[in-house]
Design a protein that fits this description.
This protein is of the alpha/beta class and 716 residues long. Among the domains are: 176 residues, Rossmann fold (3-Layer(aba) Sandwich), CATH 3.40.50.300; 77 residues; 137 residues, PCRA, domain 4; 46 residues, no CATH class. Helices cover 46% and strands 14% of the residues. The protein contains 30 helices and 22 strands. The strands form 5 sheets. The protein has a 7-stranded parallel sheet. Strands 3-2-6-7-1-8 form a 6-stranded parallel sheet, sandwiched between helices. Strands 21-20-19-18-22 form a 5-stranded antiparallel sheet. A hairpin with a 2-residue loop joins strand 15 and strand 16. Helix 6 crosses helix 8 and helix 23 packs antiparallel against helix 25. The chain is elongated, with a radius of gyration of 30 Å. About 3% of the residues have low confidence. Bound molecules: adenosine-5'-triphosphate. The site of adenosine-5'-triphosphate has 17 residues, from helix 3. One of its GO terms (cellular component) is cytosol.
Length: 716
């Protein structure tokens, strides 16, 4: 019937699923097996053949993108036959509706502290509370951890008394959580997770309201059920009872939100909770070539906590899976640009990565090569990363030695022997002389300190004139910032490799710029480019996305990049005999599997072999795939150096904004020595012209720029 009327040729397994009407059923499916396709066909079957009113069917899924995708696909196929509104929603949206209905009846006004422009933002509130409790600044990485921990607690319905059973890795998490909850309660504020907990509480305590919803939705369908959390399952269970016309579609192998409280174990208990449940399997993959299906299928079998499924396809063989070994991240970028510049398949191409940071140098390179791209699921955390802020502060000071705010950020992160008291003193002073001059003349300094400060002043002066790439290396080595990084990572238990990964992205951007100003402008313009592109809808572009955000999507060609240990999985040196680690590895393996199974025809797995001059191991998942496909498909790509890359030719040179202040270390009051005029003191500086009072000659006006170029003027 469906084939004749709607031109969909469902297979036997799919047909059984689509024709299922009453009672609980669980559909366990593999990627690309038509989960969404069958769900929308079943919806149409209920409406057209069983005359169920569309307003009585509730279809929920995890993400807004999936809900919109379901709705679009439903109306594309069945829009000509069904013109009433069919409700496809996220579970959060449904919960919010429940909360709002309750609030209206009881005259309560809740304000949401997430999403678009809330009057008070969850992150701001948490940063404040963290500061109050730990007397420390909450950086972006820790904030992410705190957000995940709170989300995990709410979604997993963990009671406060049981917090001690979990390792939240946030100092005084219990107190932060309590303060956060109390503040929200007092001010009628809710975050996205509260929508769920509150909706559940409302339904549990208001029989009337619960009955209204039960009556409204006698048919409930859940897509992506592997991502459904405990609290979400509890809401659905309440709404479905006692008819239990519940239709759940899931792929436990694609469960990748454990860190936020996804509870795929519920699928294993489904038939215990819902008596008489049917279980269907969809195992035929319609999306990918035979190689991709067969290798992905072997790959995921290594996981132990899963429903046994066997993915197969009737699709043809296509290209083999490309394992691409490159020297380093620069060569990885070269490889991608080379591949993309010689093809026209932008639309059906995706570059996927584990970690958002991977996108930065790619965005830089794609934009410089005029390749069309779009970005999905990108958070701007790179630009707020402490290491980025530190390095920009170093450069700020080099360009403007009066900038005490930047100096305050970095003075203890280098070899300076500078006291906090000295910094506090300078902050009180007028900006008439440079930070270094103040420091050098700070009372009671020991000789070695003064000598050191003079050296530092010269170092920063030299820094301003270096090529950006050299400047970053100079900060790292000569100013000993690397030493600080190592000890800071040890102290805060950050992975040094991950921190260096951020540094390397900056070095790569730096390598393509010619001056410090140009480099700093490029960082700024990248931020703007990303913000602009995120807003645009580009259908004919290469998609850059985290694997998490790529779920549910499909592309002809997929490049999975940065497949190295410490990036994928993010935790390295792990022992998979430990039970907790084994769970962690299984979730990471599922994520890798989601990435692989987005590809229809071509799949490229790219792994750099050196980072920061040191050998890095490929991801253990690359090794597992290598075992299956053998070495014959490994391509080794080596480029001379990034600057010599063929595709580097098309790099744009930037319109260099006129440097309004020529960078120099001098300021009013500086003691100087001129190779010809001898010692003197700078009386005033106006633009490039300094009035210098020389001991032997009196006042002379000199161009600082000329003095610097001719190397005739130095600080004393
Ligand atoms: N019976 C069928 N005949 C032909 N193509 C099909 C059939 N069923 C599904 N497809 C196609 O297979 C592809 C995958 O379908 P769909 O997106 O519904 O799968 P999915 O199981 O939801 O995928 P995933 O979980 O990996 O995101 C789509 O391009 C869809 O049109």
């Amino acid at each position: 019937m469906l084939k004749n009327q709607h031109n969909i040729d469902l297979n036997h397994q799919q047909k059984r699923v689509v024709l299922h009407k009453d009672g609980p059923s669980l559909v366990l499916a593999v990627p690309g097996s038509g989960k969404t396709t069958t769900l929308i066909c079943r919806t149409a079957n209920l409406i057209l053949n069983h005359k169920i009113n569309p307003s009585n069917i509730l279809s929920v899924t995890f993400s807004r993108a999936s809900a919109q995708d379901m709705k679009r696909r439903f109306y594309e196929v069945f829009g000509k036959y069904i013109n009433q509104n069919v409700y496809f929603s996220t579970i959060h949206r449904l919960s919010l509706r429940i909360v709002q209905r309750y609030a209206k009846i009881n005259n309560i006004k809740y304000s949401i502290i997430e999403g678009d422009n809330p009057s008070i933002h969850k992150n701001t509130l948490l940063k404040r509370i963290y500061q109050e409790i730990n007397h420390d600044f909450l950086n972006e990485e820790k904030l992410e951890e705190l957000l995940s921990a709170i989300s995990f607690v709410k979604n997993s319905m963990i009671k406060k008394d049981d917090f001690s059973n979990y390792d939240f890795s946030i100092d005084r998490f219990n107190e932060i959580y309590t303060k956060y909850e109390n503040y929200k309660k007092k001010n009628h504020l809710i975050d996205f997770d509260d929508m769920l907990s509150l909706a559940l509480k409302i339904l549990q305590n208001n029989q009337n309201l619960l009955n209204q919803y039960k009556k409204q939705y006698p048919y409930i369908q859940v897509d992506e059920a592997q991502d459904t959390s405990k609290v979400q399952h509890a809401i659905i269970q309440l709404l479905a009872y006692p008819k239990n016309n519940l239709f759940m579609v899931a792929d436990d192998d694609q469960s990748i939100y454990g860190f936020r409280g996804a509870y795929p174990e519920a699928l294993l208990h489904f038939s215990r909770i819902y008596k008489g449940a049917n279980t269907f399997f969809l195992e035929q993959n319609y999306r990918s070539s035979k190689e991709i299906v067969s290798i992905s299928n072997t790959f995921i079998q290594r996981n132990t906590q899963r429903y046994a499924k066997n993915m197969y396809t009737e699709n043809e063989y296509d290209a083999p899976i490309h394992m691409v070994k490159v020297q380093n991240i620069a060569d990885q970028t070269n490889y991608l640009i080379e591949e993309l510049a010689t093809s026209n398949f932008y639309k059906n191409t995706a570059i996927l990565y584990r970690n958002n940071i991977s996108a930065i140098t790619l965005i830089d390179a794609l934009e410089r090569n005029n390749l069309p791209f779009t970005i999905q699921g990108f958070n701007m955390s790179f630009f707020n990363h402490w290491i980025v802020k530190d390095l920009l502060a170093f450069l700020d000071i080099a360009l403007n030695p009066y900038d005490i705010e930047s100096f305050e950020r970095i003075y203890y992160k280098m070899n300076g022997y500078i006291s906090k008291a000295a910094i506090s003193y300078i902050k009180e002073q007028p900006r008439s002389i440079s930070v270094f001059e103040y420091l050098i003349h700070f009372p009671d300094l020991k000789d070695f300190q003064r000598k050191n400060l003079k050296r530092l002043q010269k170092d920063f002066y030299s820094l301003a004139h270096m090529k950006p790439k050299d400047a970053l290396s100079f900060i790292e080595e000569n100013l000993a910032y690397k030493k600080f990084l190592k000890s800071n990572c040890q102290r805060l238990k950050y992975s040094y490799e991950n921190v260096m990964f951020v540094f390397i992205q900056l070095k790569m951007i730096a390598a393509r710029t010619n001056s410090i100003i140009e480099f700093m402008e490029r960082i700024d313009s990248l931020k703007k480019i990303i913000q602009r592109i995120k807003k645009e809808k580009r259908n004919t572009s290469i998609l850059l996305s985290t694997i998490h955000s790529s779920k549910g999507l499909e592309f002809d060609r997929v490049y999975l990049i940065d497949l190295v240990s410490g990036q994928f999985p993010p935790q390295s040196n792990i022992d998979d005999c430990d039970e907790e680690i084994s769970d962690y590895l299984e979730e990471e393996r599922r994520l890798f599997y989601v990435g692989m199974t987005r590809a229809k025809k071509a799949l490229h797995l790219v792994f750099p072999t050196f980072q920061d001059g040191k050998y890095i191991k490929p991801s253990p998942f690359v090794e597992e795939i290598k075992d299956t496909i053998k070495d014959q498909y490994i391509t080794v790509k080596k480029y001379d150096s990034f600057s010599k890359s063929k595709y580097n030719y098309s790099y744009k040179t930037f319109s260099k904004k006129q440097i309004n202040k020529f960078p120099h270390p001098f300021c009013e009051g500086s003691f100087v020595a001129h190779t010809k005029f001898g010692k003197g003191i700078i009386k005033s500086i106006d633009g490039d012209i300094a009035q210098i009072d020389f001991e032997s000659l009196g006042i002379r006006s000199l161009s600082l720029q000329v003095c610097i170029q001719q190397k005739v003027l130095n600080l004393l």
